[in-house]
Amino acid sequence: MVTASKPYEERWSLEQVDECVQLWKLSFEQTDKLLEFKTRVADIDHWKNDPFEVVRFLVEFKFDLKTTERKFRASIQWRIDNGADTILEDYTPPALYNYFPLGVLEGADRDNDPIYIERSGAADTLALLHRFGKDEMIKQAIWAKELMTRGPWQQEQWRHGRVKYFTTILDLKGLNRHHMNPSLVPVGQAVTRLVQDNYPGFGKKILVVRAPYIFRFVWNIFKHFVDPNVKELIEIATEKETEEILEQYMDLSVLPKEIAPSKGQGTSVQGYETIWEGGPLPPTSKDDWNRRAPVFPQQQQNPAQEQPITTVQQSTSNAEVEVSLAKIPSIKANMSGSTCGASVSITSSTDEWERLPQPALSKKNIQQAWTVTPSPVYNLDEVWRQDRLDDMSQLWGLTQRQQQDMQELRNRIQDIHHWKNDPYEVVRYYVEFKGDLDRSEHAFRKMIVWRVENRMDNFLQQYGEPDPLFLHMPMCILRGTDKDGDPIFLDRIGACDYTSLLKHFGQDGVTDYVTFVRELNSCRPFWKPYEFHVLKQQRVRSYTVIIDLEGLTPAHARPALLTLLNRTSRIAHYYSGWAKRILIIRAPPIFRLVWGLVKGYFAVHVRDMIEFAGHHSYQVLLDKYIEREVLPFVICPEGKGGPMPGYYEDVKLEGGPIPREAFDRVPTTVSFRQSASPTTFDKSLAKGAFVCQSAPMAPTSTWDDDDSEDPHSPVAARRLLIGTWEADEGARNTYERSDSITTYTLTKG
């Protein structure tokens, strides 16, 4: 065992807090935040609610109390849901996992901190996956992290002081194409996520050693998906550099000979029975599932034996969420948020709640202007009445069995009082997940929570009219339809000047515009003119997506663009059921290699919709689904198509570099959605740009508009509510309150 269980008061005694402050060398301000955090999580009755555990979260998240509280509560809930507190008593992996060489060493580094080694390149991970499955691999990873962070070996360590950090060595010797098998990617993704979310603050240095050449290429692609605070700890060494790098941090004799062949004599601590050389698994036999004895026998006690909490409550300015211990698909959340006088509730109560309104579309200067109109009280029975169900079933061609499934899905989500709980919306999730009711319900609930937390039902109104520069992003709905009579969405990624747009608007600005496009494309009023003139009053069901990679260059693989791809792909998860097929055309040869590496990060049901075609065969692929005359000339020489009337009609489908004169424009609008977290804006906003932000602000704040490395205003930009940028280059500026409501004006100081 690690220690005996202690009461809350003893864990947070002055002596314990003082010892924690000394160990982590906390400043007065950080100590105050530690004590304030103690008060914020006093309702959590769990052994992890201990200053030595809590401080890891605080350090990891830069003592941001709000973020840390959210992460800490989520981690406690995760431990309960996954049995992490008792996993060392009631579980050990199959003995064959000894062939995955990992463990904590008996020796320490030069700072007397423990060393953890994982020889991923020597492990036959694909064979382990095939032999035991994904769930067992993830459970083994949790067991290994628990053994690392609170195993019996720490009793010996604690005689010399508490464990603060680990030096981690990841040995990639032996890495080959089998380690990049797509079936392994979801496992790696899940393990990486659970480690980052639930075991923060343990890393001092992560040494990636004996990395093959291909790893450098792969790392440049994937490093943008790793948390920045983790990325800072990583140092990569080739085989020639390995011993030199390792010797900077430890004596090579403490390492196993498999890592340091010339000097290594190290062994693993109690609890690990690893086979350091790794290698292929023995042939399949009836003994494959034989397990070792638990690390902690059942009669022994460990800190996790304290009574766990039964609920985790998190309050934010946008919502109050109560997460039950039930499995995710049946989570019931109570949320309330004010959006222009409307409110939302996801609850089991039978009380009627106001329905969040849908935006009503009107035309103004060819662009779309959005207003929120009053909406009647949400009535589940009215929205799901039989004639609407029949019409929806006919539109989607549902069988009798599928209609029964939709009724069951309706019963499962009847606690959700939100305008999206509508058969025409819910069916998209049912179709997207191929009739799997659990996954459909899970995805639908996540979408509702996301929309409420981010006030997405008011996003189009808050965002306003997009900047004209975004018309240089060649993506739009086309005028015509595919051969099924459904719309076509074209995105010419290869022809888009993302570099200029990111420099001008920043990550948030471009992400918000992509969100605007997704929200616009999924909004009923947007489609009504199209349905009337093109579809002869039939509802839009789904559309064909064409992604044109013509013009793709190495510049599109820059870190900023990959970060943008990561952000926008996460948002796409909340717009299920709109794409029926995805045609990726004119893909360069290098894309095949990149796709082979990253496709595992896409959900299986999304991958199933994708078809590829190169420069010489793309027209054959398009001919299967679309008439050539419907396509624009930039895709097909004989094409006569173009963007649909309305917002998209001025989109420049030819793409290419944005002309410099386009940036010397008249004042325009750049707005950001209101959220619980502050939003910063890029200082390169054009003169006269209009910005909106919901965070409170002191009457006056100042900053220097210079050419510093930080592209965001460090103080005032986070506090701006409404203002007009009137600065000359290099001038000092001041926000001054111009009225008593919520308006601030940027004026030259």
Automatic annotation (TrEMBL):
One of its GO terms (cellular component) is cytoplasm. PROSITE patterns: CRAL_TRIO. SMART domains: SEC14 (SM00516). It comes from the Eukaryota. Residues 92-267, 465-648 form the CRAL-TRIO domain. It holds the Pfam family CRAL_TRIO. InterPro entries: CRAL-TRIO_dom, CRAL-TRIO_dom_sf, CRAL/TRIO_N_dom_sf, SEC14/CRAL-TRIO_domain. This is Phosphatidylinositol/phosphatidylcholine transfer protein.
